[in-house]
Specification:
Strand content of chain B: 5-15%
Largest sheet of chain B: 4 strands, mixed
Largest sheet of chain A: 4 strands, mixed
CATH architecture of the largest domain in chain B: Up-down Bundle
CATH topology of the largest domain in chain A: Butyryl-CoA Dehydrogenase, subunit A, domain 2
Shape of chain B: globular
CATH architecture of the largest domain in chain A: Beta Barrel
Largest interface: A-B, 44 and 42 residues
CATH superfamily of the largest domain in chain A: Butyryl-CoA Dehydrogenase, subunit A, domain 2
Oligomer: heterodimer
Strand order of the largest sheet of chain B: 1-4-5-8
Distance between the termini of chain A: 71 Å
Number of domains of chain B: 3
Shape of chain A: globular
CATH topology of the largest domain in chain B: Butyryl-CoA Dehydrogenase, subunit A, domain 3
Radius of gyration of chain B: 20 Å
Chain lengths: 403, 369
């Protein structure tokens, strides 16, 4: 045994490539059970390399994950089906990492990443949409040091599949709204949790309503301090916005693609009015694509600009106008709809299905993840520096707010 | 095979921008521009000299061997962004871009050749040139040509931009040639123009001596395409000034005991306008980059930029006038200079509609039978 341990190798791309190859040699994808492989990958620190050692990472730069992913993909390794567990990966995990106790991190992160445990997010309420901090779900201390939660949450994706939820609830109604919120991990198998599908204008139910009645949450599943929930939630929501954008689309890669194809293939549908509108929207879509590409180039060059704030606004407007045009273009077929059956789709593709579905589903694009009206305020205030909206709610106890 | 366009501004390009902006801040303030519009000299010769002799900017598109800077459309676009921001009354777009491109399309070749010499003169800024084609002509549209008889030119051309500032006119003739005519040999009359800072003129040629430079068709097409593509950068600078100045004013202006910029109806309009300007920046940069690299998609990039830019520039200028309220409607406030330039620019080198029509072919989105 040497007296002093060897200096740790520098975690650069070459080192990560070597580590990944060693791992693949020890766990050949072809001969390894999928779940065993994913668990071993997590334990080897190759799940999310920027996470700390022991929690699925190596404390390496986040950008090096691409090196690992490329090696694994080339070897035909299974992945953790990230689209199925997006809320866990994108929102719950960074929050648990930043605010969780060592015990919470150990308990939750591994099965979250492998997909053994699906997560959902219990934030929005019927009475708290854009004004999320006004939420009214109550958490009161029960006997035995746990919390008793009562309330209703809404627009919850994956609630019917989830083992766990990140939950914000009101623990002190006597202080102004932002200060009386606490952040919890909620067990979705608790008998007080009732999940009901929320049927939407497309006929199907991507989302759920979640009714919480006397749900008991041990204090050991609180994330962050009592009353600090709003601050903890900012971590969750900021990571939600990081996940938007960064997608690189080819020309006609978005909603304009199916319309342009129909236009080319079916000349009998063409009219002069539709032609002018189509050309305008084609220009808008292509310019918007270039703006997204410019934003991506800025990020790569290490000069992130404020342009990202506007991308979702443009995305929503374009999807709505283009799909609206498409229904008109189809003429008689525009009077039809592909399927009103109440279904529970596991994955959502905005450009999937028929024109009528696209038209209806895109109505949600200007509501979900921040309404266009709120986003315009954000651009005006944070980018242009215009005065904030007058606030009458900042110094009023939550219980005294108008409702 | 298409590569990704570089849509950013490099450090060197930002340094160039800063230098041009400094010069314009010192020598092209709105009050001075306004006063000049009603003077005998609508073009600012002193500013032109500082931009050209002082900074060498008229020669950006001209190879070094011919006395230019050997730079590209990317740098020229940055200059135009700043000139647009200042509605500077200098013939940069018409001489250093459009006339220069027309000459570059002629068999320029050697220093010492007539075309090469003229390019050198334009590159130095000592000579100002203009293409004698109406400013409203789209790159793919028909253009007028004058008669050639006994070696001289005869005819009338109207709506020629910056002809009043030009020393040499580049004139297409019916025989298919592009000719150089000394402005002194032509009758150039200013037309009372919507755009006070880039007025147009009527040119009458009556047995004007002319020297043949090359073929008109390819020269005019290339010149107008570059003009249209880089006009988008001028429109970007103009729109950005309108947005920035309006935001600044609305933070300061108070009514109902609060800054007017705090009213949500106005905040949302300005945020929407910001989004348009951000988009225009990408579209203009894409066109400049495509022209600079000689991309196979340059036609599409120019058409896309011009189908988008006019709407943004005019919207920005109209919002500037409206949101400034009464002061925005006065002669004294410079907003009208921007509105007039923006509206004239919406016709320059083809309307957005003309470019969309061209797009129908380029993007294979054909009209109804």
């Amino acid at each position: 045994m040497p007296d002093t341990p060897a200096a740790p190798a520098v975690l650069d791309a070459a080192r990560l490539r070597a580590l990944t190859r060693e791992f693949l040699a020890a766990h050949p994808p072809a001969g390894t059970d999928r779940l065993d492989f994913l668990r071993a990958r997590f334990d080897a620190g190759l799940a999310w390399v920027h996470y700390p050692e022991g929690l699925g990472g190596l404390g390496a730069p986040r950008s090096l994950q691409a090196v690992v992913d490329a090696e694994l993909e080339a070897a035909g390794a299974p992945d953790n089906d990230p689209r199925r567990i997006g809320i866990g990966l994108g929102m719950a995990a960074p929050t648990i990492l930043q605010y969780g106790t060592p015990e919470q991190r150990r308990r939750f992160l591994r099965p979250l990443w492998t997909g053994e445990e699906v997560w959902c997010q219990l934030f929005s309420e019927p009475g708290a949409g854009s004004d999320l901090a006004a939420l009214g779900t109550r958490a009161v201390p029960g006997d035995g040091g746990d919390w008793v939660v009562d309330g209703q949450k809404v627009w919850t994706s994956s609630a019917h599949l989830a083992r766990w939820a990140i939950l914000i609830a009101r623990t002190d109604p006597a202080v102004p709204k932002h200060r009386g919120i606490t952040y919890f991990v909620c067990d979705m198998t608790d008998p007080g949790v009732e999940v009901r599908p929320l049927r939407q204008i497309t006929g199907e139910a991507e989302f759920n309503e979640v009714f919480l009645t006397g749900v008991r949450i041990p204090d050991s599943r609180r994330l962050g301090a009592v009353g600090e929930g709003w601050r903890v939630a900012q971590t969750t929501l900021n990571n939600e916005r990081v996940a938007i954008g960064g997608m690189r689309l080819p020309r006609e890669g978005g909603m304009i693609g199916p319309v342009a194809r129909t236009w080319r293939e079916r000349p009998e549908l063409r009219t002069h009015d539709l032609h002018q509108r189509l050309l305008k929207l084609w220009v808008d879509a292509e310019v918007s694509r270039l703006t997204a590409e410019r934003l991506r180039q800025q990020l790569v060059a290490g000069q992130p600009g404020p342009e990202g704030a506007g991308m979702k606004l443009a995305f929503a407007r374009l999807n709505q106008e283009i799909s609206g045009l498409e229904v008109e273009l189809l003429g008689e077929e525009g009077l039809l709809y592909d399927d009103w059956t109440m279904r529970r789709p596991e994955l959502v593709d905005f450009t999937g299905r028929e024109a009528g579905y696209r038209y209806l589903r895109s109505k949600g694009n200007s509501i979900e993840g921040g309404t266009s009206e709120v986003l315009l305020n954000i651009v005006a205030e944070r980018v242009l520096g215009l005065p904030a909206e007058p606030r009458t709610d900042k110094d009023v106890a939550w219980k005294d707010l108008a409702r | 095979m298409s590569t990704q366009p570089d849509l950013l501004h490099s450090e060197e390009e930002e340094a160039l921008r800063a230098a041009v902006r400094d010069l314009l801040t010192d020598h092209c303030d709105p009050a001075g521009v306004l006063a000049r519009t009603e003077s005998e000299a609508p073009h600012d010769a002193k500013l032109w000299k500082a931009l050209t002799e002082g900074m060498g900017l008229a020669g950006l598109l001209v190879p070094e061997a011919l006395g230019g800077q050997g730079a590209t459309h990317r740098e020229a676009a940055v200059v135009l962004e700043e000139l647009g921001r200042a509605v500077a009354p200098v013939p940069y777009l018409t001489s250093a871009v459009v006339a220069t491109e027309a000459l570059l399309a002629c068999a320029a070749g050697e220093p010492g050749s007539p075309v090469g010499d003229l390019l050198g003169d334009l590159a130095s800024g000592a000579t100002v040139g203009t293409l004698a084609v109406g400013l409203h002509t789209a790159p793919h549209a028909p253009f007028p040509a004058v008669r050639r008889e006994n070696g001289t030119l005869h005819g009338e051309l109207t709506a020629v931009a910056a002809a009043g500032a030009a020393d040499v006119l580049l004139v297409p003739a019916e025989d298919g040639g592009l000719y150089a005519v000394a402005a002194a040999e032509a009758d150039v009359t200013a037309q009372l123009s919507l755009d006070l800072t880039r007025p147009v003129a009527r040119i009458v040629l009556d047995a004007a001596p002319a020297r043949r430079l090359g073929e008109a068709e390819p020269a005019v097409r290339r010149a107008l395409r570059a003009g249209a593509g880089l006009l988008a950068s001028e429109q970007l600078g103009l729109a950005d000034w309108c947005l920035t100045e309006t935001v600044r004013y609305l933070k300061d202006r108070k009514q109902f005991n609060r800054p007017v910029g705090g009213f949500q109806a106005l905040k949302h309009r300005l945020a929407a306008l910001w989004l348009e300007v951000v988009n225009l920046r990408a579209a203009a940069r894409n066109a400049a980059d495509a022209l600079a690299t000689g991309s196979a998609e340059a036609d599409l990039a120019v058409v896309l930029a011009q189908a988008y830019a006019a709407g943004v520039a005019v919207h920005a200028a109209e919002e500037a006038v409206q949101l400034h309220g009464g002061i925005g409607m006065t002669w004294e406030h410079p907003a009208h200079l921007y509105l007039k330039r923006a509206k004239a620019d919406s016709l320059a080198y083809g309307t957005a509609g003309a470019h969309r029509e061209r797009l129908a072919t380029l993007a294979d989105l054909r009209p109804p039978a």
